[in-house]
């Protein structure tokens, strides 16, 4: 096979040496010429062309945009050429006049971008290559793979028609499934799969079942509408109004009344409260989609299920990616293997399936360090959602299964990954790990180390805003201590929320030293943030403290000069 490829390559090169200069190159517009020159740059021309294509697409200058339609039509246009020893004049597509190296790199590029380029353009290019009487074997293999993927994609979306007999049998079967005297919830549960796959009413069972089907369709529409950004914002606003009612500035707390505070004197204004809630929730809307923030099930399903949702053009990279994971490489040249560019072509669901096929959550931690080093070198940067999926797949299960201190390899991998994708680590790892049931000391210890060593101030504030929305435990209080220990500047709204969270917990943690130390940190590190209104609330909370540090904290609070 290798000798055949070599011989074919020599033959094509001989033809190219005899060919005159290419005047047809001027038919291409400027972006297309740039792409062709990049494709002929060498063996890694496909990767270079992919990066050039992304830069071209990002350019907004007139005449600089890249259009697949124009590029394809020009490549498929026929050009008269003289071929063979008899110099016979023939018409050949410009695509077949390109150097063999350029053709190989072009089809490798098509494998990378086939998910985003128009399918009719891809079909035209594949048809044009079939006009070559002696094709390069490498190009032919790439073409056949593309053709197979295109054919399978079309067949996947082509519904199979049902005959009248089959439809009647299916209807009868469904009536048997949902038949009998059953409650409507049971009917809805049994029919839900059928209604989703066959929305046509002619197949629905009659009677009450039809009503159930109608209700199911309405519920499905409501669920789809809830995914709309405006609908999601409205839902979050409703939730915010409920939270505002629950977090009235401590008017009903016994210690506030005991401290002599009046409702009209409460200086932690609701406007400030709403502002910070809107700020933190708005940040969550923009940067942490609900699908990423939710803690997925620990089991990711079988590899067969994962393969079912990963397209063939992605699955073909699995053997090579597994080989990279198994390599004991110490590559430090700052570049990533070209195989990792496939990460840009995956949707979040496909990437999750790919991670399951690669068993990333179970790979050795030494290999995890090398893999994260390569991920940092991938250019351009991964999208937010894909980086969040990788964060979860690489680290979440490892963190949740810790029963002893994290190894140095795990910490090295996590620290390096966090240096570039800190927001994803906060939203897809730290927050789910802290919210997971039964959070152990090793989990929180790892989180505290990340906060101390790896997070910039803006992400410290992000984690604090997330923690303020969680129910607190002794372990979580130690995390808050670490967050405040960074002594980052807190906006007044965020500090208001911190006080609002701390004071109502005074009764529950009256004998907790961790809670008492946290109060000490607030009084000493953030004394300049404390207003007279804060002093009244904190004083009421300290009245309920039953630890040996109570008097010291009260003295510290009394010494503060009013602002």
Automatic annotation (TrEMBL):
Pfam assignment, any one: FA_FANCE
Stretches the record annotates as Disordered: 1-22, 197-243
Record InterPro entries: FANCE, Fanconi_anaemia_gr_E_prot_C
Domain Fanconi Anaemia group E protein C-terminal: 309-559
GO cellular component terms given for this protein: Fanconi anaemia nuclear complex
PANTHER family: FANCONI ANEMIA GROUP E PROTEIN (PTHR32094:SF5)
UniProt name for this protein: Fanconi Anaemia group E protein C-terminal domain-containing protein
């Amino acid at each position: 096979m290798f000798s055949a490829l070599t011989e074919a390559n020599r033959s094509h090169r001989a033809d190219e040496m005899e060919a005159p200069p290419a005047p047809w190159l001027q038919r291409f517009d400027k972006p297309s010429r740039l792409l062709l020159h990049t494709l002929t740059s060498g063996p890694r021309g496909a990767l270079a062309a992919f990066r050039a294509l992304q830069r071209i697409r990002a350019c907004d200058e007139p005449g600089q945009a890249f259009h697949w339609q124009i590029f394809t039509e020009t490549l498929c246009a026929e050009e008269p050429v003289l071929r063979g020893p008899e110099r016979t004049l023939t018409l050949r597509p410009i695509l077949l006049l390109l150097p063999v190296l350029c053709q190989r790199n072009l089809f490798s590029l098509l494998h990378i971008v086939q998910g985003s380029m128009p399918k009719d353009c891809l079909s035209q290019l594949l048809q044009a290559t079939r006009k070559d009487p002696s094709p390069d074997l490498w190009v032919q293999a790439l073409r056949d793979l593309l053709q197979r993927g295109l054919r399978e994609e079309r067949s996947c979306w082509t519904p199979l028609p049902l005959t009248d007999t089959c439809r009647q049998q299916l209807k009868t079967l469904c009536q048997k499934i949902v038949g009998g005297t059953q409650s409507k919830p049971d009917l809805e549960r049994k029919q839900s799969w059928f209604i989703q796959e066959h929305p046509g009413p002619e197949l629905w069972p009659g009677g009450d079942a039809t009503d159930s089907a109608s209700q199911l369709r309405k519920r499905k529409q409501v669920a789809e509408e809830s995914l709309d950004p405006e609908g999601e914002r409205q839902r979050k606003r409703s939730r915010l109004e409920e939270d505002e009612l629950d977090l009235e500035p401590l008017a009903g707390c016994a210690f506030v009344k005991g401290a002599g505070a009046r409702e009209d004197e409460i200086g932690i204004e609701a406007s400030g409260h709403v502002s910070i809630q809107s700020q933190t929730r708005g940040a969550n809307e923009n940067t942490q989609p609900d699908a990423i923030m939710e803690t997925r099930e620990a089991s990711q399903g079988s590899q067969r299920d994962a393969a079912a949702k990963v397209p063939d053009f992605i699955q073909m990279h699995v053997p090579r990616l597994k080989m990279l994971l198994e390599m004991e490489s110490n590559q430090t040249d700052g570049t990533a293997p070209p195989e990792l560019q496939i990460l840009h072509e995956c949707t979040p669901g496909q990437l999750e399936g790919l991670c399951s096929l690669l068993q990333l959550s179970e790979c050795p931690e030494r290999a995890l360090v090398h893999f994260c080093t390569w991920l940092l070198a991938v250019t351009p940067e991964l999208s937010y959602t894909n980086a969040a999926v990788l964060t979860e797949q690489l680290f979440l299960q490892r963190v949740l299964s810790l029963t002893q201190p994290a190894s140095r390899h795990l910490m090295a991998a996590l620290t390096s990954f966090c240096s570039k994708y800190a927001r994803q680590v906060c939203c897809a790892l730290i927050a789910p790990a802290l919210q997971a049931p039964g959070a152990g000391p090793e989990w929180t210890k790892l989180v505290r180390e990340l906060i101390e060593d790896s997070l910039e101030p803006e992400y410290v504030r992000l984690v604090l805003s997330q923690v303020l929305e969680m129910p607190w435990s002794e372990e979580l209080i130690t995390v808050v201590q670490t967050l405040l220990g960074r002594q980052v500047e807190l906006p007044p709204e965020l500090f208001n929320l911190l006080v609002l969270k701390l004071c109502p917990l005074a009764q529950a943690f009256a004998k907790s030293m961790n809670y008492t130390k946290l109060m000490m940190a607030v009084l000493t590190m953030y004394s300049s943030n404390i207003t007279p209104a804060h002093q009244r609330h904190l004083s009421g909370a300290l009245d309920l403290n039953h630890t040996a540090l109570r008097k010291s904290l009260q003295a510290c609070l009394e010494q503060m000069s009013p602002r």
